[in-house]
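Chain and conformation:
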Amino acid sequence: MATSPLATEIQERGKRMRSPAYPFINLETAIRRAREFYDKEQRNAASLRIAAKHWRYEAKSSGGLQTAAAMLSFGLMEDEGTGEKRTLKLSKNALKILLDTRPESSERVYLIKQAALTPKIHAQIWKKWGANLPSLENLRHTLMFDWEPPFNENTVDTFIKEYKDTIAFAKLTESDSLTVEVKDSGEKEPFVAQIGDWVQWEHNGVLGFPEPRRVKGLSPDGSWAYIDGQNGCVERNQLIKASAPSEGKPPADPDPSMRIPPPRKTLMQEFVVPLSDGSKAVFQWPTVLTKDDVADLQDSLKILERKILRSTDKAEQSPE
């Protein structure tokens, strides 16, 4: 079966969608957020909802979650628990940065430099180029085409600005390559759900499943996961590790005489395409197809391609 231009573009776009993780905010802003948290909580822990409020975000706002993730990546915060029980508190290094009032403290200067290189992607880029970054055009090209995984063209400029602002704020220079350790970011390896894992879906600090569920499949590009008992799919990076219900014990086997044979199911395959505005396109088809079915689908893909192209033309022609 020949692959249509539309299907090829969909597959290629799916592969391009994921970028390496990088901080949502630069280090200067992160230290300011640490100060805002300290002014309210001192050395105490607080829930993600409360922390988001201290940073002037709504409780379920993605900005609060992304800010917390950035603080963790810089090593300015520590977290414990998951979902509603997840708490955040300032790290020892963050407290030293905030409370060290000694004039020209060399320790504080060092800790700020260390924080700048704690995010894994920061450490990797500093190790490769140090203070001598290539031109903006060359850097963009390298990150989008030679980096593994490559940066999305829609996020690469945002990351470059964040990285440059952080390095400038930390006043890192070439001589710091001998004093600042970059061989290990100190960042915990994130949990990456695999087929068969028990997981919870955490979105904006809220658990989305009434109880842990198992991963039953992954999208072709690995960005989305299909979950037992869940229609559609969820983003793989929003899944957190969980224990099986009832401490992993399977439910009691019912009396054989009471068993009802399950209805015959038509197995379906699904391909999900995340789109730039946050929505997604979903393509489904039965696992078993006849030759006539395959021919019909080929013809239908051509019709679908024309309809999508016409929608694009109308959008470009419509007055603003």
Observations:
- The mean pLDDT is 78.
- The chain is about 40% helix and 15% strand.
- The two ends are 41 Å apart (CA to CA).
